[in-house]
Amino acid sequence: MGTFWPNRRGPSPSHKMYASAKSLLSCCMPLHQRPTMGGVGNKMPAGRGWLLLGVVVLALGVAASPAQAQAPGTSNHYDFYITETKVTRLCHEKTILAVNGQFPGPTIYAHKDDVVTVNVYNQGNKNITVHWHGVDQPRNPWSDGPEYITQCPIQPGANLTYKIIFTEEEGTLWWHAHSDFDRATVHGAMIIYPKQGTTYPYPMPHKEMPIIIGEWWNEDIEQLLLDSQRTGGDIPISNATTINGQPGDLINPSCSKNGTFRMLVEHGKTCLLRVINAGLTNEMFFAIAGHRLTVVGTDGRYLKPFTTDYIMISPGQTFNMLLEPITPTNGSGNSRYYIAARPYVTNFNLQVDSTTATGILEYVDMPPSSGPPDFPNQLPALRDIAAATAYTAQLRSLVTEQYPVDVPTHVDEHMLVTIAVNTVPCGGNNQTCTGPNGNRLAASLNNVSFVDPVVDILDAYYYSIPGNYTPDFPNKPPFFFNFTDPNFPTNKSFTQRGTKVKVVEYGTVLEVVLQDTAILGAESHPMHLHGFSFYTVGRGFGNFDQSKDPASYNLVDPPYQNTVSVPKGGWAAIRFRAANPGVWFMHCHFDRHAVWGMDTVFIVKNGKTPEAQMMPRPPNMPKC
Ligand SMILES: [Cu+2]
């Protein structure tokens, strides 16, 4: 099939050549204008198309950015400058941390098997780290990113070069800060194209577009986190759901209309949507009025294609979808259609940000319509558990000769891990907290509420520094009760703090059943594992039953994921082979749960051969 994105190293056109951005707004990024892998110098967009996109970005406030390919060959380099940046949404101006002044941040482009380096310069006002979400990083936990797990934070004024080793991943992943709540504004897409000379397992789309779902707080999110840590109470809800950093014109229209994300399409030109949920708080439904979507991939892996009216995407997940721009026959004949993201909320006790973010899909080859865009009435309601369950049940790995699966059929070690929101005593001198019953909110896995160590766990492990963690994370919960009964024993609301890790031998096949509990309210949890993708072999409601439920497992074509949505009052079973030596975080991707302790760590020991051993510690890792 030849080359799909020919290297175009032509001279960089000046911006004034593209002064009339309007004429160039033909939808998403045309694929023939992909970035080249051999760049033309630092901070110089490598392909002509990226300048075009840059102009479009400026014109529409669309958050996608030129690649900054630097080194020739397969190695690419980016410079990320994290600075305090002023942005205005909902007519509130505030200072956020952002990469290269962009919110959402710049897109990283790579091909399968590339190695990309990113030098992160912390020019902000607080410690920070960055994680390359969904990249397995074989033998390279050093560049994984979570604060106090695999590194000490990058302090203000310092910098750190991360090495992202892409191997099996192909599709869409993303990067984000992995410290406090910095992820709210420090995030961006990673696009991993097929290996040079190979193609997608579906017809070549004409265009592509990252769509990043997020949240906006009018207040300073870091301050809200600090306040909640002082009071022991919950974190205030966000003020708006966002699409590519914008609430859209249904939320406070007089403030939001101008910035609304617009995606321009033409009849017959298929667009590949790369949807990412970068939100901190909510799973999301997503749909486009008048159009069906063909889902072809998730979490940097291919799926058996299926067509759907909507998707449900958890924080941490990505979905690749093909959009065929055809004027809907049942629509109004409108030239504009809302793209919409609405929270999917399973904890009915919580106050939530229920705003629906919108962008606009706009046909450039139709007469412009004057009325409002059509709204996607197929978008499920806020609490539609049945809609979410039906969507997720459709996820199956592609499975072809070129994209085989390797689902473990033999399990070496079984773990049952309960997930809970809890409390701990407020602490101090009879201090009263604003959490339940005057206590402090906490969260746990197997009743261990994870506490960050003083020295990051990877260094503590590598240098055998005692006192930072204990290797006794349990394989099962300490107590068995009816986990999903809302009338849970009241004494079970309290949890214990600790820094407990699970140590496994290299190559061990693990099955981890993640079990939600009703303690302080059942809800779904997007559980994310670093260092691995895993097969989600089963999901179900109620208490997992080892004698019955494995019979329903899909061991033929289960989805290969890095983040699984554990159903409210239910369970999810994942399997993976621990053939990646290092220190790997597992946590809920609802950030408030993660900071409350819904986390644990796998330490995978070195194997015997050199290929089964961690890379040596790079120089210049930050100090705690
Ligand atoms: Cu959670």
Automatic annotation (TrEMBL):
Catalysis: reaction(s): 4 hydroquinone + O2 = 4 benzosemiquinone + 2 H2O
Keywords of the record: Apoplast, Copper, Lignin degradation, Metal-binding, Oxidoreductase, Repeat, Secreted
PROSITE patterns attached to this UniProt entry: MULTICOPPER_OXIDASE1, MULTICOPPER_OXIDASE2
An annotated GO BP: lignin catabolic process
Gene3D superfamilies per the UniProt record, alphabetical: Cupredoxins - blue copper proteins
A GO MF term: copper ion binding
Its EC number(s): 1.10.3.2
Cofactor: record remark: Binds 4 Cu cations per monomer.
GO CC, any one term: apoplast
Domain (Plastocyanin-like) ranges: 82-196, 208-363, 473-607
Pfam families linked: Cu-oxidase, Cu-oxidase_2, Cu-oxidase_3
Cofactor: Cu cation
Major localisation: secreted
Domain of life: Eukaryota
Record localization: Secreted, Extracellular space, Apoplast
Family: Belongs to the multicopper oxidase family.
Its job: Lignin degradation and detoxification of lignin-derived products.
UniProt-listed NCBIfam families: laccase
Protein name: Laccase
Organism listed in the record: Paspalum notatum var. saurae
